[in-house]
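Quick note —
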Amino acid sequence: MAMSRRELREQIFKLLFRVEFNKVEDMPEQEELFFEDEDAATAGDASYVSDKYHKIFEKLAEIDALLNEKASGWDTGRMSKVDLTILRLAVYEICYDEEVPTGVAINEAVELAKKFGQDASYGFVNGVLAKFA
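Predicted structure written out below.
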């Protein structure tokens, strides 16, 4: 059974999160391992997740520059890895993905922060993304 948009976004978040713990050249192998672990994904879902992950990965430098510009008093190096990964995904959706309305990208990011972040994460994520809205 195909995953919901929210489930797909969670998968992209989990795969993108690995970027923080691995060298760039190790990411293809990490991606392979990720899909071996996530055996629930249909081929279509896996392809969607992989596609979107690659699009975000290619733009990480641009996305981080945007974050550093907008998140006054914070730079990406000081953010928690969870918050940073959620913000990268959301900023990609807001700035580069025409299929995702900005409001949806922000709401979904806040939901991810509530699920995976710390207590203050969703407020922080919401505050940073509000500057992109």
